[in-house]
């Protein structure tokens, strides 16, 4: 039994063209060198734009949280406090909790960075950015988050938020990057996941017993700021 022929169609986006180029349904007039050149251009633009950013904290969270939600106010306050501590704030540049964090950075007079990505929904750039970059590729955008961050602060979110969180934990666990603070904000939201990590991954010996210590879970802005500032001081060899 053979597979049916699939009609060719144009790729819907540059990342689909790159990642799905082996599929018969995705065809474009580009060779692999041209495809990788697009990604290289995004990396070089990001490196050039953010080269002098200094200490920065990436704040992640859902694009779907409205402005009147308590999580929005907490993300804005957290970003303001971290900005006052001398850190730039990096977000995904979209609405919801990303907007709240960029807004909090501007409240503090700190540099507010948005790493926007072209998506068919959700990702409209928020107006609270001093530096805005636009990416076609998720992986080039992820490089910017890790390369220029001294800590990750992760508010409640969906698949995208979880993706950034676990990618950071993998990089730290495997020593691909220096250990930096990872703070999960929202005890009620994150506790079921943390219980599963400890009750299944640790108990089944799928991760080490001390791997859950790679992150902190809290609702307290003071603890967030203290954890991040302490981690930045160690990473940058600066007095706390």
UniProtKB/TrEMBL annotation:
The keyword Coiled coil does not apply. Its EC number is 3.2.2.n1. It comes from the Bacteria. The keyword Hydrolase applies. InterPro entries: LOG (IPR005269), LOG_fam (IPR031100), LOG_family_nucleotidases (IPR052341). GO terms for biological process: cytokinin biosynthetic process. This is Cytokinin riboside 5'-monophosphate phosphoribohydrolase. It comes from Paraconexibacter algicola. The lineage of its organism: Bacteria, Bacillati, Actinomycetota, Thermoleophilia, Solirubrobacterales.
